[in-house]
Amino acid sequence: MNKTRLQQLEQLLDAPVLPRVMTAAEWEREGGKRNPEVGDTLVNPEGVRIIARVNGSEIHVLETAAKLTPLEERLLSYVLQNNNAKPQTASTDLERQARRLGEWIQQSVTAGEWRAEVPDRMELRNRLFDGMVPFLLSCEQVEDKEPTYTELEKTIRTFISDETLLIPLREHEWLVLSTDRVLTEAEAESDEVLGHEETKEVLASLAEGLHQLVTGEWGGECHIAVGEPIVPSENVVRIVGTLRETIFLGRKFHVGMQVHLPWLVHLERLLSGIPELVRSRFVEEMMGRPDLFTDSETITTLDAFFSMDCNVSETAKKLYIHRNTLLYRLDKIKHEAGLDVRSFNDAVLVRILLLLYKVTKRK
């Protein structure tokens, strides 16, 4: 649900409405039914939770403290169900073919058929070349600026390549497949062949540029994940599942980040599988001071320190502070938490604690 509709709903209910992303397992643990659907509700002492969208195992929930009558719950459920059932029609042969392929991908992901190969009956199969670069866009534009398939495809082609394929998957979600020409063009700017790490840097830069292009053109909230080159006829289902999980983990552990990279969320993937109760207990037991991570300066410092591979000089440059100022902050963390992030073992532990704190504090 975009911001405009969210504001309208808040006005109708006369209470704040907060969007939240959950897993199906979390929904069930909190009392929801096993196979959640759009419109399902949970009532607790704090208010009501209602499902606005279901994307596989990912559930988009609206939370409000408003006390709804049974009739209001049913009406809201009806509106959300109709919003998700909005029909989509193809205006060109390419769009029709892309939507057909997207429906097959979605069905395969839902069924857990990660190794499924694109069947010969799909018209676009002969346009799936080895080594294509996958981007997953999850965007909710401002209501009056929602792009059509043709508009979005034309815009993306101006940025990446004429060989790019745009494949609609779900509402507000698209898979973009580009030939590896985008990488060879970057390689041409250098005298050396791109290595593995250099390729990742190029992919991250392309994702950043694509994000700026889409949000600059249509606004709204947009999240993008990019993967390394694949053989799409064999691996498209697996990569869609991987990139969806990457965006989910990025939104869960790194609020405010819009570009997500699979190779940077390995630890987050591991931590996400730990039950919430265990995560919360671990944070409480290990924290020297429960309020340590409530200080925005501490969080900013640690985020920068870890992003710069624990390099003091580079972190100081990134934060635009003197090296001694950074050392003072790190010593303060050591004194208050009993953990020295300049030590490998302590740095690993603080990194884990920081990630867990970020997700548990929003519960």
TrEMBL record:
It comes from the Bacteria. Residues 300-355 form the PucR C-terminal helix-turn-helix domain. SUPFAM superfamilies: Homeodomain-like. Pfam families: HTH_30. PANTHER family: CARBOHYDRATE DIACID REGULATOR (PTHR33744:SF15). This is PucR family transcriptional regulator. The lineage of its organism: Bacteria, Bacillati, Bacillota, Bacilli, Bacillales.
